[in-house]
């Protein structure tokens, strides 16, 4: 195309046209709800150029053809390449004491049969866990968030086996694999106080020096599963005492956010809490949620949604 601007052609291994970028914006929006602004062109180029190299392709056009053919493996790699996975242990730390207090209160009030959050392939296991409090971390990334929730539960119940199950989901299969391993470089852990490091991690030796593994008891509290928040049907049943949906809605437009909020509402226990990221506000969805504390929401209608 005569008018089509080729992005920074001179310094790049591959041509990357506006048209190709626009196609990628559309594909990832439709598949994952992620709205990529035009400022993300360079990021998209560098992340996807790796995929072109991996396939020995010579142009973005060829790569787009591969995706359009519906190559499932490549769709997964494409999606994984375009997610942003920034996270940290006890990010937005004020949420964790609120969660602790909330589950202790709920535990006192709830009848056992009210706890039955299940994912179908785990019915058998989780049915045994009906007496448990169920929490959902819906954008778990590399695991720091669900493990922080698990640590908060150990602290709240003063035992390494609290009556809590955490479902941790994310769209990105690479980060979920990392989360499941529960191994972190010491750099990722440097902000954790020493007593927590000692309590919750096993330091690596020899080949594993410089990293630490989350204790098995924490890992046992969590089930990791892939889940696309954009999917029409989620294989999940509530109620959850709390849903963490932090720092992912910012990638979605309002319509997408609102559709997700509509599906969160019936999955929360009537007094359940929804935790949002620091720059996310759901106050526009006042028919569904109302603000309880800073970036913490409760159901607008706590009896019936
Ligand atoms: C910036 S991280 C936030 C991680 C964590 N919640 C936190 O606040 O530290 C955003 C996560 O959302 C995930 N994500 C993006 N789109 C998603 C979708 N459609 N469904 C589920 N997870 C998605 C990404 O893979 C990424 O791991």
Order of the strands making up the biggest sheet: 6-2-1-7-8-10-9
The percentage of residues in β strands lies in: 15-25%
Q: How many beta-strand segments? A: 10
The run of helices and strands is HHHHHHEHEHEHHEEHEEHEEE
How much helix is in the residues? 25-40%
| Distance separating the two termini | 52 Å
Q: Tell me, rounded to a whole number, the average pLDDT.
A: 91
Give a short account of the largest sheet: 7 strands, mixed
Q: Using only CA atoms, what is the Rg? A: 21 Å
Ligand identities: S-adenosylmethionine
Shape: globular
What are the main properties of this structure?
single chain; about 300 residues; alpha/beta; Chemotaxis Receptor Methyltransferase Cher, domain 1; Rossmann fold; three-stranded antiparallel β-sheet; binds S-adenosylmethionine
Characterise the protein shown here.
39% of the residues lie in helices and 17% in strands. By secondary structure, it is of the alpha/beta class. It folds into 2 domains: 74 residues, Chemotaxis receptor methyltransferase CheR, N-terminal domain (Chemotaxis Receptor Methyltransferase Cher, domain 1, Orthogonal Bundle), CATH 1.10.155.10; 205 residues, Vaccinia Virus protein VP39 (Rossmann fold), CATH 3.40.50. Strands 6-2-1-7-8-10-9 form a 7-stranded mixed beta sheet. Strands 3-5-4 form a 3-stranded antiparallel beta sheet. Helix 2 runs antiparallel to helix 4 and helix 5 crosses helix 7. About 3% of the residues have low confidence. The structure holds S-adenosylmethionine (SAM). The site of S-adenosylmethionine (SAM) has 24 residues, from loops. S-adenosylmethionine binds next to loops.
């Amino acid at each position: 195309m005569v008018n089509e601007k080729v992005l920074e052609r001179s310094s790049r291994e591959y041509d990357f046209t506006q048209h190709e970028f626009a196609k990628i914006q559309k594909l990832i929006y439709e598949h994952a709800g992620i709205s990529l602004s035009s400022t993300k062109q360079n990021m998209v180029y560098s992340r996807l150029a790796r995929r072109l190299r991996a396939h020995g392709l010579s142009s973005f056009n060829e790569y787009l053809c591969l995706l359009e053919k519906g190559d499932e493996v490549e769709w997964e790699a494409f999606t994984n390449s375009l997610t942003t996975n920034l996270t940290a242990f006890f990010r937005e730390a004020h949420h964790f004491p609120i969660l602790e207090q909330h589950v202790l209160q709920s535990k006192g009030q709830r009848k056992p049969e009210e706890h039955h959050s299940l994912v179908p392939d785990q019915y058998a296991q989780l049915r045994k866990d009906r007496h448990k409090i169920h929490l959902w971390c819906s954008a778990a990334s590399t695991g720091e968030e669900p493990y922080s929730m698990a640590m908060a539960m150990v602290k709240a119940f003063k035992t390494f086996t609290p009556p809590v199950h955490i479902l941790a989901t994310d769209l990105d299969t690479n980060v979920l694999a990392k989360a499941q391993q529960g191994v972190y470089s010491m750099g990722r852990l440097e902000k954790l106080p020493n007593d927590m490091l000692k309590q919750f991690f096993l330091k690596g030796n020899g080949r594993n020096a410089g990293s630490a593994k989350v204790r098995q008891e924490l890992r046992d509290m969590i089930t990791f599963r892939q889940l696309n928040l954009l999917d029409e049907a989620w294989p999940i049943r509530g109620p959850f005492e709390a849903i963490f949906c932090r720092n992912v809605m910012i990638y979605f437009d309002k319509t997408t956010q609102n559709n997700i909020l509509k599906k969160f509402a019936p999955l929360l226990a009537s007094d359940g809490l929804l935790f949002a990221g620091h720059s996310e506000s759901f106050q526009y969805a006042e028919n569904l949620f109302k603000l309880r504390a800073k970036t913490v929401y409760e159901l607008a209608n706590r009896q019936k949604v």
